[in-house]
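User:
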Amino acid sequence: MNFLHRQTWPRLHDEGHEVACRFCDSLHEVELIEEGQSASCNTCGALLYRNRPQSLERAIAFGLSGTLFLIGMLALPFITLDVQGSATTVSMVETAVRLWLQGGHTIAITVLVSLFVLPLTILFSLLYICIPLSRGKTLPGVQLVGYLFQVIQPWIMVEVFFLGTMVSLLKLMKLADVSMGLGFWSMIALMLSLAASVSGIDRIELWDRIEVALAQKNTEGAAVEGGVEC
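Assistant: Predicted structure:
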């Protein structure tokens, strides 16, 4: 990878990084690339990382919108079933509660974890990291939150639940008139916002920014202590 592009995100000058190709395991030195550009493996040509334009701003914007859509999905009516003139409207929370009361504890817990706990955790982690980083700062425990973000990210399964919901709705349409509520459309918006927020910033850039912010914080702290001693 021979890049002569300008530096577009902060990085410690004395820190060398290597990235492994996820397909052929070839190691490459991480070089700074221009916004909108991507780096590919010299061996197999697979994508290694990207420098996304306005990465922090995009991650924050989609993270905040995803949080609003998550609240809407849980609180707003999800579907309305009309069977021979008798209409029933339920929200996602009511669905989980009814499943629990009817003995479906495992399914109820799965619904709450996959549609509330995991998405909320990933959105909170992303905002906890990116909002301070947009000002060159970090909050306490940012490294732990960053590791949590990486561990939970592969387990976000809103799109899987969406496909299951669509299959169930197609079956219900044969038995009753089904109307989609705002909660249903909020779930679709949440799914898109999650994908956009997570892909808004590359992991390599994210950790470079964290390292620079922590180093600056340590430098400022040492300067303050030196001033007090004097």
